[in-house]
Amino acid sequence: MKNFVYNTPTKVVFGKGVEEEVGRLVREFGGHKVLLHYGGGSVERSGLLGRIRKALEKEGVSRVELGGVVPNPRLSLIREGIELGRREGVDFVLAVGGGSVIDSSKAIGYGLADGGDVWDFYERKRKASTCAPIGAVLTIAAAGSEMSSSCVITNEEGWIKRGYTSELSRPRFAVMNPELTLTLPAYQTASGCVDILMHTMERYFYHSGGMELTDGIAEALLRTVMKNALVLRDDPACYEARAEVMWASSLSHNGLTGCGTDGGDWASHKMEHELSGLFDVAHGAGLSAIWGSWARYVYRNAPARFARFAQKVMGVSGGGTHEEMAEKGIEAMENFFRAIHMPTSLAELGVHPTEAQIRDMAEKCIRGVGGPVGVVRPLEVEDIMEIYKKAQ
Amino acid sequence: MKNFVYNTPTKVVFGKGVEEEVGRLVREFGGHKVLLHYGGGSVERSGLLGRIRKALEKEGVSRVELGGVVPNPRLSLIREGIELGRREGVDFVLAVGGGSVIDSSKAIGYGLADGGDVWDFYERKRKASTCAPIGAVLTIAAAGSEMSSSCVITNEEGWIKRGYTSELSRPRFAVMNPELTLTLPAYQTASGCVDILMHTMERYFYHSGGMELTDGIAEALLRTVMKNALVLRDDPACYEARAEVMWASSLSHNGLTGCGTDGGDWASHKMEHELSGLFDVAHGAGLSAIWGSWARYVYRNAPARFARFAQKVMGVSGGGTHEEMAEKGIEAMENFFRAIHMPTSLAELGVHPTEAQIRDMAEKCIRGVGGPVGVVRPLEVEDIMEIYKKAQ
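^ Those are the sequences you sent over. The predicted structure of the assembly is below.
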């Protein structure tokens, strides 16, 4: 078991109608004037923005607004948000959306509280010492950014996708009403479920340390998400299933499922980041397309761990060697991905990288980490290329 | 499923040697002068207090000290702490101990930040609007006060035991080194394990609402604590088992295992509070002495729930009616209590209440709640008396 820090200060307000409380929550955390930050028109059309404006007005919280966040949120809009926020004397950033909007808000938060160029943090030129307070009204269960310390943004100059992690950016509060996700397209719902599963699976496949309690919680979370992803495939309007998945999205990425481990593997995430950097794919779908290939390439380095996964998470009955169990578990997870109409190969994802592109992505993975990728089996360029190829 | 608020701002620093970080943590949360609050001489003799003094000095944090906290912490010492803290200009309360010391520290925190009489809050005369910041160095895994919003203290004038709950008192940080619990007496270790189990079991036996994810996490926690309580019975010096139990103590009572439910039953806790108010018994031991009697009295109101408990937590194999499964599950839990040398009756607890005492305790239970006790089967005075009697 490794020493760990568990820090989840985000106050979660969860359930039907809780967006009505957003004005009170901004006040509770010291906000007087918010930058209301969101994505496309759906939050306007659904009436959500209207309800939020009203909730803010009711508590005397003034605001400026900035919409237009896109998946893989852009630095140019973040810079616009920082400038707008400074000019208008904003003291709180309120994100209304999914992971992209929250990540964009975190970047604006860093920029608002800091004098210099916000991209410096993502370039590792400086460390942030402060961040404007963030609040989130979650509309997509997937990324877990509503309780996490990380954010990923894209600089259009060179299309560089970079993450930055600091405790400073954890949202002060997260307002989570599962009803807001009832009308999400099926593909986005399923892709979100894969993202949630993977945030815990990346942590679950660790190399050293570990705790039984963490393993048990992780396994319960994975089983719950799989079960409810199938419910939502057949009945997208099921509130209870939406709620299970939404709460799992937060617990999957707030640190809980990694307590006492070495932090987990994360190779699949790194390979997917390069993939979605080069091709325009949904993050969860990219992960399901790669995972099986990764798992088959590395499981012989941790056969007991993969056998446990097969048994406790995938319900594979005992018998056979660890290796045999592991293979059955990997197959069962791929079957689950197929069952919720998620791709299990790059071809199904609609992506056909050339040899040169594969090498380029693999080299970027290594460069991003500064050495071998992952802990179950530390991967070099040739290993990563092989995994991409086997995923074709 | 019910709406819920999940608020766990306590920063947990967990593992070997983490008490060395206490000075840095006090500074991080704005403290300059602490009231170092503790119980008996064991923390002095073990060298823990010495290490903490050094860690504080290293960071330039000054201090005053107040020891002498006893189980069921006393109002008189709390008043002394408030007076001392005010006189000395203390801006942070640092608890070094178990639940009693942390609860005493919370009460001092309320008193320090407030001008009036601290007992007012426990008498429900006023609501606290502020509390001095608290930090905890945990030495006993049991009460979960290190991440909870509640505290229970005893007023020696009339020996009135009262609790007060407010988000204001959640510790800013909790320093948890499982090594500090390696030398606890076996009885205290086992009693702590029962307390941890019961904090989740009280929530697990709810009447309405509920989430699969919460159930799954609760079940994983209960199985982990039982398994490691048996390990510690045979090998008290096992660090890994101490760590599992310590982390479970926090997660069991920080709200996680109750998300989406109606809050749970809590009748066993209320009956035990009256018991330990009248007789001097360890809280966990009092709970194990009562629980089976409570469970047998109420399970017919929730047979499916008790059957699930039997199967998922106690490992009772399927077959038979819900009622039959429920009975087997209750018996299995009592057998577990016996296996870790915890009492399953009042006689084994060494307590022999008279009819008048039983009535008195039952009436106090009702008065404390202002109506029937518990949600699985709301209990009136006669019901509670029957449960006490069947526990004899």
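The two ends of chain A are 37 Å apart (CA to CA). DSSP finds 16 helices and eight strands in chain A.

Shout if you want it in another format.
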